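Message: I would value a second opinion on how I read folds in token form. Give me a protein, with the fold worked out from its sequence. Write it directly below this note and I will take it from there.
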Amino acid sequence: MTISIGAHVDQADPIAEARARDTTLVQFFLGDPQGYKGPEVRYAGGAAALRADAEAAGIDLYVHAPYIVNVATTNNRIRIPSRKLLQQHVDAAAEIGAKGLIVHGGHVNKDDDPAVGFDNWRKAVEATDLKVPVLIENTAGGDNAMTRHLERIAGVWEAISAADGADQVGFCLDTCHAWASGIDLADVVEQVRAITGRIDLVHANDSRDAFGSGADRHASFGKGQVDPDELAAVVRSVGGPVICETPGGPAEHQADFAWLQDRL
């Protein structure tokens, strides 16, 4: 089967990065993944040039929101700037013609009711002008995380399904995160689809650490602890676009693409 497989790359020239990997699909940050400063397009010629050049080259772009975005939290000093940052990244992703913006599920504080976090997700969806699909990603660790465990993902989904704009919210399934969080990869696709109705993107990653470890440490395919057949089965079962967030540059990524294609 033919599945588009790409990689997470440096943001300065995603077109060149895609060509170096012989792929039509890349993901990157716009700006600092750990900062509130807001997105910046580092491509020569800016957003309009990146959009035009990607279209001309037939390359699909995905943007990963900064890790610090946490729209679920009850802490106003984090939630309010997070919502602002989310909107800024949606706007910037739309300007470059991105297919989607990937956002981590975030977390609440230790003594908070998770239901408050679910409802904060609903409010964030309603407060954001979703010009591109926002793809919520499952995460690896944290006892108070919103998208680590299936029942929490279900809580988020139930809350946001009542929001205006819910049709623009999709799901990004990360294989390393699922493994590290203790979700069995054998039926993860079935389980997630039963909750969300959709999986829009796969982050295909091996895991350095053990099943259920809670550790978010990606490894190149075949060099981590995830069963190769199970990893390939997830990708096959989803049947949609794949981003590898594995270590290394073009050569390592091409080796990962080949490894995965061989098993599909």
Summary: Residues 76 and 141 are 23 Å apart (CA to CA). The chain has a mean pLDDT of 96.
